[in-house]
Amino acid sequence: MKVVSATNVGNYRKNNEDSYLINESKNLYILADGMGGHLAGERASKMATEIIASDFENAREVKKIEDAIEILSSSIRDANRKIFISSEEHEDYRGMGTTLSCGIILGDVLVYSNIGDSRIYKINRDMEQITRDDSFVNYLMEIGEITEEEAKVHPKKNVLTKAMGTTEDIDVSVNTLKIEKNDIFLFCSDGLTNMIPDEEIFKIVKENTPEVVKDKLLDLALENGGMDNITFILVFNE
């Protein structure tokens, strides 16, 4: 397993509200994109990544798929509750929240979950988004009100229908996916996918070595505008 990652504040934001954490010994990958007032988004995303990582670190050795599903589900709820309580107790953090994309690889299975619009893609013979965006435009697409192309330029494309820390409880869906040799998994915030079309990401990933891919994706996202924080993790199942 080869892993590369990058984060950048972008060209316009003052703070980097993205956070990510990798535990290669457990094949655990966590990425969060925070939101809120001054420093609140940073706190929310950092709390999410650290709490989930800690819960897996403190758990007994995770060998069964069922155990990973249970730990990931309970950990996301745990992080959500703690972020919500922190926002209620501290005025500076009022209304903070964060997206999440998280996965753990056990043998030939990826156990994963997401909240909000931070995504996980599987890249091999093609590029497939395996997570579902919790966003207003995705809802409109699902009911047939707008097309995928219209969603890309919709004035409310950044409006989320779910985020961690904005309510005391949260619905969590954990999924599994069988992994094939040469599968590549991309965990990313929307600062990457809003700046680079999927077909261009696919081309860069397939035509370059992991380290070159990392540099090219980050450079291109900045060249194309860098309107938001940019964060991604690439996992190569070599």
Automatic annotation (TrEMBL):
Q: What EC identifiers does the entry list? A: 3.1.3.16
The record, for Gene3D superfamilies, names: PPM-type phosphatase domain
| Any Pfam family matching the protein | PP2C_2
Residue span(s) of domain PPM-type phosphatase: 2-237
User: What keywords are assigned to this protein?
Assistant: Hydrolase
Q: Which domain of life is it from?
A: Bacteria
Q: Which SMART domains match?
A: PP2C_SIG (SM00331), PP2Cc (SM00332)
Matching entries from SUPFAM superfamilies are given as: PP2C-like (SSF81606)
Name the InterPro entries for this protein.
PP2C, PPM-type-like_dom_sf, PPM-type_phosphatase-like_dom
* Keyword Metal-binding recorded: no
One of the entry's Gene Ontology molecular-function terms is: protein serine/threonine phosphatase activity
Into which EC class is this enzyme placed? hydrolase
What's the name of the protein? Protein phosphatase
Q: Which organism encodes this protein?
A: Peptoniphilus gorbachii
Query: Where is the organism placed in the taxonomic lineage, from the top?
Result: Bacteria, Bacillati, Bacillota, Tissierellia, Tissierellales
